[in-house]
Structures are given as structure tokens and as C-alpha cells.
Amino acid sequence: MSRETGRKAIASNRKARHDYTILDTWEAGVMLTGTEVKSLRLGRASLVDGFALVEGGEIWLHGVHIPEYMQGTWTNHAPRRKRKLLLHKSEIEKLIGKTHEGGLTMVPLQMYFSDGKVKVELALARGKREYDKRQDLARRDADREVLRALGRRTKGME
């Protein structure tokens, strides 16, 4: 019997880094059914509309799409059902306190297998305004241009 080791990415939410300013991240386990895990092993999931909410002292992941497993039977899962996140009580209390501050939300950044178990990288984030997004794009373009100029200079092209 071979055990999985290491970290294998399933899905990532690149849009979250564009739409939000990431303040802090946590790794959380996810409570899944068997057909969900089989579907994830095929690398099928979407985190784009995902977010996490606190309900009854627990954190639940909403809006994450895990398509039905094709070989599944009547026991197949609902693709967009809410899923419980597994965190330590102290981490949950910290997240509850920070989300009640106002303007902060929890978004999934990445879903992956870690030693055979499905994990989610959960971020505490603040939404960016339109001008913040434009400033980030301008800064990234300027940095890229500086690196190009340095590269040309070191190669002796200028």
C-alpha cells in the first residue's frame, strides 16, 4: 500500500488575490463525502465563488463547486453544498473576532491534497476598491519594466 506524501494542488483562486487584500492565511481541513474526494482526485473543483461563514461557532465553506463524480450512483453529492472546515477552537475564535471587526471576509485561496487529506488555504481578506486594483496593476507593470531594463543592461544590449 503506497501512502501519498507531499502537497498536490487541486484548484486555486487567482481572482481572490486580485479582488482582495490578503491579511492572514490559515490551513483548514475539509469535511467531505467519498464521491467528493474521488472527484477532487480527478482535479476538478472551482473556488471562484467560494467564501467562508461562521455559523454556530463553526466555519462553513460556501459556493465551492466540486462537480459530481461520473461513476457515482444515487449516493452522489450536491456540487455546491456547504462544507464544514476543520480548525482548532482557538483559530476559530480568532477568525470570529476578526470577521466581526467589519470589512473583513474569509475566502479560499487554494485547495490541495496534503499527505492524502484535502486541505484549504483560507485567507482573511479585505475587499479592494477599483482604484486599488488599478494601482496594483500599474505597480506590477512598472516592476516588470524595471526588470526588463536591468536584464537588457546586464546582457550588454543597452
UniProtKB/TrEMBL annotation:
<comment type="similarity">
    <text>Belongs to the SmpB family.</text>
</comment>
<keyword id="KW-0694">RNA-binding</keyword>
<comment type="function">
    <text>Required for rescue of stalled ribosomes mediated by trans-translation. Binds to transfer-messenger RNA (tmRNA), required for stable association of tmRNA with ribosomes. tmRNA and SmpB together mimic tRNA shape, replacing the anticodon stem-loop with SmpB. tmRNA is encoded by the ssrA gene; the 2 termini fold to resemble tRNA(Ala) and it encodes a 'tag peptide', a short internal open reading frame. During trans-translation Ala-aminoacylated tmRNA acts like a tRNA, entering the A-site of stalled ribosomes, displacing the stalled mRNA.</text>
</comment>
<dbReference type="InterPro" id="IPR020081">
    <property type="entry name" value="SsrA-bd_prot_CS"/>
</dbReference>
<protein>
    <recommendedName>
        <fullName>SsrA-binding protein</fullName>
    </recommendedName>
</protein>
<dbReference type="InterPro" id="IPR000037">
    <property type="entry name" value="SsrA-bd_prot"/>
</dbReference>
<dbReference type="InterPro" id="IPR023620">
    <property type="entry name" value="SmpB"/>
</dbReference>
<dbReference type="Pfam" id="PF01668">
    <property type="entry name" value="SmpB"/>
</dbReference>
<keyword id="KW-0963">Cytoplasm</keyword>
